[in-house]
Write a structure and sequence with these properties.
Blueprint (H helix, E strand, L loop, with lengths): L4 E2 L16 H10 L4 E5 L6 H15 L6 E6 L21 H11 L3 E6 L8 H8 L4 E6 L8 E4 L5 H15 L5 H5 L1 H21 L1
Parallel strand pairs: 1-3, 2-5, 2-6, 3-4, 4-5
Length: about 210
Amino acid sequence: MEKPRIITKSTPTRPSTNFEGREKELGDIKVLSKDKVVLISGLGGIGKTEICRKLFWDYVNNGDTEIKNIGWINLTNGIQSFIGEFHELENTGSNSDLIAIHINGLGDKLLLFIDNADEVKGKSKEIDWITSLNCRMIMTSRIDIGSRTETYTIDQLPIEECLSLYRKNRKDNLEAPFEDDRRHPRQSQRSERDYSVSHNRQQRQD
């Protein structure tokens, strides 16, 4: 299968090797993005960007029959992060009309990931301009950006997936310190519960 061409200067870091679960969320977002601008919403640190990294590299590495071009833009510096990101428009300055013509010409064969859309909060015209572009789009935001998007809310990992992640890391990296757990099942179960509670508490704090 032909792999999509990356058309932006930026690409995300690879997802964590400890990425666990989220199969339903990944599937839902793929389906929704076929004909909607998807806004992935949730608390800071809940996993919005990590899910997008996973999706981005899945498309790049495995290909897709419908996606021919792909891009990644982080709006940490506001709308200026968007302008100037495209390889083929390096010499056009900050002409938003040319950018729109270029993106619209690629149509639904282009999938853009827009991270940290809330960084342009209060600038509804800029968000409206981005979401009006004629391509597939997946955005992340901690808040409702009040534009033409289909919001998909990410919740904390279920307890079963937290425990699975804990066991995976214990086996790979912490086997020796947990040798006593095999002799003391109650202590092992308590450690797993403590980890899952701590993991979800940290997500809420982030």
